[in-house]
Specification:
The protein is mainly alpha-helical and 90 residues long. 36% of the residues lie in helices and 4% in strands.
Length: 90
């Protein structure tokens, strides 16, 4: 995933709580990034998340991360299984 995947509102679901409390400047920066985002090829994984700091190896805005980032541990068993399933590898 190239950017934090916040769940935003639909007809049947309200905005994710972490999106609601995201500071407006971060929302606008992220929305601008998403507007210019290019999907990877179907057989490729995306690069690091837009919020990932390669120097510190941490999320730049950890306290505002979306639900999916709270549920999956990067490099954990579930994360690796999901990536393998996505790519059809083992």
């Amino acid at each position: 995933m190239g950017y934090p995947a916040f769940v935003r509102s639909s007809k049947v679901q309200p905005d994710e709580e972490h999106w609601v409390r995201l500071p407006e400047a971060l929302k606008q920066d992220l929305l601008a990034y998403i507007a210019g985002y290019r999907q990877p090829k179907p057989d490729q994984l995306d690069g690091p998340c837009y919020w990932y700091d390669e120097r510190t190896r941490r999320c730049k805005h950890h306290e505002y991360r979306p639900r999916v980032c709270r549920d999956f541990v990067v490099g954990g068993e579930d994360c690796i299984a999901w990536r393998n399933e996505l790519l059809g590898t083992e």
